[in-house]
Amino acid sequence: xxxKHVARSAVTSLLLTLVFLSSTSLGQLSxxxxxxxxxxxxxxxxxxxxxxxxxNKTSFGRLFYYPVKGYVYAQPLYLQNVTIPxxxxxxxxxxxxEQDMVYAFDADSxxxxxxxxxxxxxxxxxxxxxxxxxxxxxxxxxLVPVIGITSTPVIDTxxxxxxxxAKTKEKGQFIQRLHxxxxxxGAEKFGGPQVIQxxxxxxxxxxxxxxxxxxxxxxxxxxxLQNGQVLIGWASHCDNPVYYGWIxxxxxxxxxxxxxxxxxxxxxxxxxxxxxxxxxGDVNFNTFFATGNGAFDVGPNGGNGSDYGDSIVKLxxxxxxxxxxxxxxxxxxxxxxxxxxxxxxxxxxVLLPDQPAGSPHLHLLAQSGKEGTLYLVDRDKMGKYxxxxxxxxxxxxxGANGGMWSSPAWWNxxxxxxxxxxxxxAFSFDVIMGKFNASPTSQTATTYGFPPATPSISxxxxxxxxxxxIQTEGYSSGRPxxxxxxxxxxxxxxxxxxxxxxxxxxxxxxxFAVPTVANGKVYVGAVGRLxxxxxx
Length: 536
Known about the structure:
Number of domains: 1
CATH topology: Methanol Dehydrogenase, Chain A
Radius of gyration: 23 Å
Strand content: 35-45%
Number of strands: 41
Helix content: under 10%
CATH superfamily: Quinoprotein alcohol dehydrogenase-like superfamily
CATH class: Mainly Beta
Low-confidence stretches: 1-26
């Protein structure tokens, strides 16, 4: 009887352990792309450790940081349970820098052997004349002191590959390459890297074709992985001509170029900036993004051209090496937006979750630019261009913010946006009416300067929702950035900020920084470092 009891106890113990491990695994989350998903909602609905009760200056703070070479403009990415050859299994946080370096760190601890990176990929080799690009070499002080990797990479968990777009100078030549790296070693895959080259028909350069210039084109938006393809967008450095808004698609397994599109082939400009916000994708593999200042001459009511300045554009998957625009929306005041340097495409967009059957509009997106008008657009019928008004779209709210150089976040039928020189705001969405309430339901006491913050949301489903934001207006004067946490149901209630207490500072500010929240930790990139915050 004793033997049977012991055996039964052992089995019970094993079963309980397996249940615990299973529930732990199910509760964990990987962050493989900008703002958590291809819709760019910025929400993590599986956060069970961080709550509105324990995120405070007593229980929460900076646990440690990793030094890196270069500024961290890209959002950190996170994978759980990665087996590193010779180093065992780790939860891994990936960091890309403007020094053309990609780091893989243990995401939970910097103790012992974890003080060093699990691996580092360096795309420069000064001995062979390969360096990151100096900002003085392109005549722009927007990104300083060098330009290497600016956009957020993307990870394919089916092949354990991280895709990175890097810019280098090699023996006097400027080159951009798409790298496909093994997440376990940092080694190049699929015969990569692939040099970025493209050409389309157009008269913008004074001839009959327009050629991609790796020197003037800045790769800013986060990469998009969908349908076995990596999609990439470009704008410029400091509006230095000549530049264009480019979209390109590459095969995720062979790195072969599959499609090229130019926003303004006959006029120039029309950059795809989005302040680092990622290109968005839907379940049908359409790609959505916003363009900046540039000519617009597209019909109906706009002409018969092919220039899409200051527009929200929908591209289906490429065919035959190119894209054909499926639909678009262009504000009625596009001409004044263009002449007044009030780009629509200064900010990213978010695809709202599918609405219930019977709703007036099943598939929606929200976006706002420098002008500060919030646009709500039906993705199935985007409205194109009406020179007299914007009444053809679902909704527009003028003055919703002070001008956006950031991306929205979405949680629980609420849109969170940050405008220049004002508070972060929450706008509730009426599911029955299919529109936003025109006035914010709450807002932060903190005023954010330039650039405004891109918020992220952590929550356990519909409970314990926390809005995280990084205050970065000190980037131009060498001041530190500040991590803030607010109750997402009432933004007036601040839970924590990194100026509270000692040892919580995030380091030098980097504009457009976006926090990554995963499994009880918050990862914050800054000048020369990656900060890791969590429960003490």
